[in-house]
Each structure stands twice: as C-alpha cells, then as structure tokens.
Amino acid sequence: MTPFSVRSPRVVAARKLQRRRARDQAGLFLVEGPQAVREAGGHVVELFGTAEALEAHRDVVRAAGTAPRYTVTDAALESLAETVRPQGLVAVCRALDVTVKEALARRPRLAAVLCEIRDPGNAGTVLRTADAAGAGAVVFAGDAVDPYNGKAVRASAGSLFHVDVVRDPDPLAVVSAFRDTGYTVLAADGYGPVALPDAPLAGPTVWLFGSEAHGLPPELGSAADHRVRVPLYGRAESLNLAAAAAVCLYASATEQRSRREVL
Amino acid sequence: MTPFSVRSPRVVAARKLQRRRARDQAGLFLVEGPQAVREAGGHVVELFGTAEALEAHRDVVRAAGTAPRYTVTDAALESLAETVRPQGLVAVCRALDVTVKEALARRPRLAAVLCEIRDPGNAGTVLRTADAAGAGAVVFAGDAVDPYNGKAVRASAGSLFHVDVVRDPDPLAVVSAFRDTGYTVLAADGYGPVALPDAPLAGPTVWLFGSEAHGLPPELGSAADHRVRVPLYGRAESLNLAAAAAVCLYASATEQRSRREVL
C-alpha cells in the first residue's frame, strides 16, 4: 500500500490537532515519539508512522492495541510532528481528563493545582515533577495552558498518562472541592508568611501554584490554609516555578512517607 | 550628542560578545535589562541604553558606578540584546569567575558542579536554584556551556553575580579539590543506590549534576562518596535536571540548617 502523503485526508485531519480549538472540538490530541506513544497505550485512537519506524518499534505498535495504524511518508510524518526529530511515530490520542470530583474520589494523598499557568513547558514540567513526587492528580485551573498542547505533552514526559489530569475553569471551586474533602490547601507564594519547613505537610495536601510572571491570584492565596514560601538561603530573589514546585511537592512526599512509617 | 547607531564602533565591538569566542578573548560578556544590570553593579565596564531607559532607570545607572555610559538608538539597543524586550539597557561586564582554589578558600557549606551540561537554560536555572539554596559556589566543569552565554545569564536571574562561579575543564580535578578539603561528594544519579532521604547531608557538601541527555559521566559517579537518587514515588521515569537539582540542593540546605540549630 502506498504510504499516506502530506495531503491524505487522515493526515490533514490529524494535523489540525496541532491547534487548540480543533483539539477541544474533537476531544483528541497528538503525541509524538516512541516513548510517548508507548505511554499513551490504550489512549491511542490512530497511529501514524514511517514504514521504518513501525517496523523498528513493534512493541510500541502493540501497546497501541487495536487502534488503526497508517504508514506515512517522511514528509507526512514531519508535518504531523512539532519536533525536529519525531523518530517516526505520531499518535492521535483520546483526551483523558477527569472532573475534580472523579479525581477526589480516588483520594490522592498529594495533588497540585496549576493556576493560570500559560507556559506549556512549565506546566508540563510541573506535571512530570508532581507525578515523580507521587501526586495523584494535577489540575489545570482557570485560564491555563491546554494540557494537550504539544509542548506541554512533551515536557510532561509521559506523566500526562500517569496521573489524573483535571481541567477546570474555576480555581476557587477547585480549592473548595479539595477543602470540603478534608485536604490541607497550601499556596506556594514567595512572600508567604509560613516557611516550608514549618508548614503542616503530613496530611492529604493540595498545593496551589501560580505563574512565574504573575504569581498566584490574591483570592487563591486567601482561600488557602497557608501561604508557604520556599526559604531563600542565598541572594536569589526567587526560584523559578518548576524548581519551587519540585521543592514543595518533594517536601510533602517526604514528610507524608516519614509519618506513615512512624504510624 | 547623537545616539550611537547600529554601526558605531563601540556598538559593533559590544555586539561581538554575543559569540563565545569573542567573550573568551575579551574576558567580557553582556547582560541585558535593568534588573540584571543592577545586579551586575561593579562588574559593569560599559553601559548602553536608549535615552528613555537611561532616564527611567537612574538607580541602575548609579549602580553601574563610573563605567562609561552610551546613549544608543532603539535599533542599536535591539542589535545588542538577544531578547525581544530588552527594556532599553545592555551592559558589558567583566568576567567574574574564580578558580576552584579561590572558591574553596571561602569554605562554602554547599556547592554544585555542573558536569558537561550543554543547555544554557538548564545551567542558568540550576545556578539560580543553587544560589537560592544557599550554595556558595557553582562550577561549570568539563565541556560545559559558557556561564556567560546570554541565555544562561538570563536564566540565572542575577545569581551569576551572587555566588562564586568557577569554570574548569577537568571535572575529576574539581572533585579531588573538594574531597581534599573535606567535602562529602554526592553524585545526583537517577539510578544511584542511595535514596536522597538516606544520604549524609549535614556536613559540607558538593553535589555533582550531569546533563539530562547523558547523565553524569561514569568516572564522576565513581569519584563521588555516594551516588544518590531522588526517589520516584509515582510513575514518572525521571525528573528533569532543574527539578532534581532543586530537590537535592534544598534537602542539603534544610538538613544543614536543622543540624546547626541542634548543635
């Protein structure tokens, strides 16, 4: 069979998913590269690959299950990919976000809310770090970046498929839902009155993170139980978002585990 | 006086510093934006600004001391800057790195060695995080990115001027120098046998970080007292470099401080 070209209708349709509006309408998004496609597994609904890549990554093709697979030309593959080296595979995946209620029903010990974070690289990195720290849910709240944005997907390094991802336009409603379920709500805030080593970290905790440019909206700081700062021991004026989130989330993870061992 | 244009010899000479070779030859580098120029302070040897910016940021001009300042056209300023919004100021600064010996003479309790890290954004971010965690020295070791690369300078957010920055082509010699001075040498390694919470963190410590792409060269892992992994509590396969460095450096900072309070 002739490989699909850049202008084949299926390729054209998939390529449209590079735009947010098309993703939202279809409830679909793109992932690229063998590693990410392997992680996507059962979420794959269509797999595009060069003949060479489909042959080289049979395990990945198997992980995509019964999803139809299409052999495409190098040019068609490149047109679907957003990176310089897509390594021959791009998959269309089903959106996998759940509601806050669904995420809370699984009672994660640790969760993170990204409030109005616009930078896809930052958002994806924090998602990856939250997963590493054992968080069970990550909420993209307010006017935040689309978690299915190509750059966010790549920065998440597969973690998009590991944790419950929630999209919710109303950060305050998200905070209320966590609070009503018994969570300690901690707002990461460089100027917060509580230093991280003094924060109550042992119980079920949700962290709120704002954008590096604008910080956390004041009403969200007020809605938290504590506004917590990562101490600055040197002369840096602040930490970047990804570093601050890593320090906060790992402080929680470590404390939660040391307490559980004692109990 | 007419503002200097894009082709004025001083502007041309300064603009050459966007290239590493010119920086190395001259022992000079560029910083841009009022915040960074303020931090640079006494390291500034020439200050370029639009008439508007020089007027608006008089405190920054003062911080640059006796360094000559030149009014330039908008186009000349843009040609010197690497960002889209340089905010009207670019300074030529004197290289400020010191030798390992000089850095060790100040006995920092905490230090970081970036081994063969090529990505300027990553390197600058780790420098900023190390400063925030109270590290006194950061070594760019081996075939690492130039700390005076524009993107590294910007990612460091001023921390380049806060800590002792060392450039050394020989990472093993750097490790030996720290070890001979009594430091615990910890290699950050996702597959290390020691989990971070079990690592000895209380004493004077130097952390070794490798690139995200290639990790730490094996001979450096072997040269360390311990190879330490940040535990992965969820399903993420790894942390990115900046997040791992933040978690490791803050674990040290926190432990060193809690011990000192006890003693």
TrEMBL record, chains A, B:
Family: Belongs to the class IV-like SAM-binding methyltransferase superfamily. RNA methyltransferase TrmH family.
Full protein name: RNA methyltransferase
Domain of life of the native organism: Bacteria
Organism: Virgisporangium ochraceum
GO function terms (MF aspect): RNA binding; RNA methyltransferase activity
Keyword Transferase attributed: yes
BP terms from Gene Ontology: methylation; RNA processing
Keyword annotations of the record: Methyltransferase, Transferase
